[in-house]
Design a protein that fits this description.
The complex is a heterodimer of chains A (167) and B (86).
Chain A: E1 3-9, E2 14-21, H1 25-33, H2 35-38, E3 49-54, E4 61-67, E5 73-84, E6 88-96, E7 108-117, E8 125-133, H3 136-164
Antiparallel strand pairs in A: 1-2, 2-8, 3-4, 4-5, 5-6, 6-7, 7-8
Chain B: E1 5-6, H1 7-13, H2 18-30, E2 34-39, E3 42-47, H3 49-85
Antiparallel strand pairs in B: 1-3, 2-3
Helix pairs in contact in B: 1-2
The chains are: A alpha+beta (167), B alpha+beta (86).
Amino acid sequence: MTVIAVEKDPDRLRMVITNEFEVGPEQVWQLWADPRLLERWWGPPGYPATFVEHDLSPDGHARYYMTGPDGEQYHGLWKVVAAEPPSKIEVRDRFADQDGNPDQSLPESGFEVRISAIEDGADRTRMVVNSTFASLADMEKILEMGAEEGMRQAFGQIDALLADGVA
Amino acid sequence: MAQGYSVSELARCYTTSFAAIQKHVALLEAAGLVTKEPRGREQIVRGDARALDQARCLLDQLEAVWRERLGRFEETLKESMKGKTE
């Protein structure tokens, strides 16, 4: 695991998570910049993401959906607030409908990613992800949506166990 | 802060300006972490301990989500490097 520090600030509804990798910043940036690589890690287990639009320039958008075990789709939308390849990207992430339009009834969250070389001669990179929420109610709703997906997945596994005659 | 303070009482305890504290309190109120109620001409600010507990709990969940995601990030990074050197 490459996480070296996690700072949680309940007063400001904010979490900063710091990682270090044994490669150069350009390689780390590629995991955000290349949609085919991004798809391999963005969605939770059992919910792979597919990016149908991916423009990480300032004021750009990315549209994606995650496909659940039963084929159901959960759409999301990134609005790029700031981007400075290969060192910074700031995104507003929100839920979207089946056509990829933002779902105004659900809250948005934000995250900022900073990627920098660690100046010690070796090819090493620090990546800092800063997640923020506008309100406690927003944070609760967003995490609840994610937890529901996790719950469905757990139920799916129980179903599989029952089908196998294990449980 | 369960007992509650007015903004001017808070301002007396900190070196920050009254305006800065007022702004910070407004942010905390918008986030649902403090409540304000009038007392005469002043607003009494009270920290919401349950809201803060909930914020902590939700941040723990968020940490778990990102730790998992960053685990996959690392795997993908390794695989992408392997593809380059081969």
